[in-house]
Amino acid sequence: MIDVMYFAWVRERIGLPKETIETRAETVADLVEELKSREERYAMAFADVSALRVAVDQELSDFDAPLSGVREIAFFPPMTGG
Amino acid sequence: MIDVMYFAWVRERIGLPKETIETRAETVADLVEELKSREERYAMAFADVSALRVAVDQELSDFDAPLSGVREIAFFPPMTGG
Amino acid sequence: MTIRVQQDAFDLGAEVAGFATDRKDAGALVTFTGIVRDLTDTDLTVMEIEHYPGMTEKALGAIADQAAKRWSLADVLVIHRYGRMSPGDRIMMVATAAKHRKDAFEAAEFLMDYLKSRAPFWKKEITSDGSEWVNSKAEDEAALTRW
Amino acid sequence: MTIRVQQDAFDLGAEVAGFATDRKDAGALVTFTGIVRDLTDTDLTVMEIEHYPGMTEKALGAIADQAAKRWSLADVLVIHRYGRMSPGDRIMMVATAAKHRKDAFEAAEFLMDYLKSRAPFWKKEITSDGSEWVNSKAEDEAALTRW
Question: Is A82 within 8 Å of chain C by CB?
């Protein structure tokens, strides 16, 4: 069970801020493929992962990061703070 | 007639903040020599002109600047504002 | 070191009034304040800022920790707001206090550069024409290579 | 552009509250404040600042003009005090407002570097041991070569 969070336009495209999913995906990239195959809105949100960032357990990470032991994954566009 | 002003430790060594003098000196350096020959306290204040700065009519200037038409000269140590 | 992520407005004067006052060796205080701009080409009515509660505080703390390691600082303050703001409103501020001005300036610029593209905030501009997420700028990412 | 040379204390918060508020394109505000440090090796009781009335305002105005030419600024503020001050007191401040943070930061650093060694102020430290004029630092003169 992993909490998956979405922010900014990723949240808007997918239509929800957070969901808890059961997955056998081994990496972030695997999880993305699994989500894309689920429904069109996921396919649209993840169409270009180079435009996305991922945080694994609240730390910026990479799409090839392993999911073993991870509790929270977040997907979002590049940050625009300040 | 030129107003000559002194600031910081130059003022303290010479013992006054401002005086009006009549001089035939042609440059700032000539004026410094004239003042040094006057009295010991001037000689002491101007002993090392490399440690001094000069402003001519309220603009930072050089010791070889001409005095023709000048109304106000000021001598002081390097600035320490901020 | 103080990190605050809040919806409420803040008062720059009040924030710096008490900042680093117990550190008598701090002769230099630098502040940066980010303000919602009024865009000339459209009528910006609202700026909405979303963030990632939990990660935001951690990310800002990590950036401030890095600054404290790289420069000799008496204190660091970071405040960043989220929610809805209007043109002219203050979005965020950083303050750095140091013995020397060079440390205070560099640390403040470092904090801003990292905060811009490494803290999980997203800006959305809402105008009379609709709303749009602000795109990140290549120059903001490039600014990080300086450090 | 505002230049003030004054004996009275100033309030950083009040100064920036009204600063550049009419320029809605200014999204970045940088301030620097110089504070009288408490020296650890001696007991500094008073800092006395002398200046050259007339020339001071001109010199600060010229430095601010240069900054306004080199960077795209919405506004510039310089306040410098003279007279007697105690440790913890604020000596001076500069503020710069700009569309982008890089301009605001660079202009503030430029103003400080020039103000340090080109504006006619002299500091004297008065301690329990006596009084001494502060020496200018080679690094402050060297800082000017950057611009």
Answer: yes
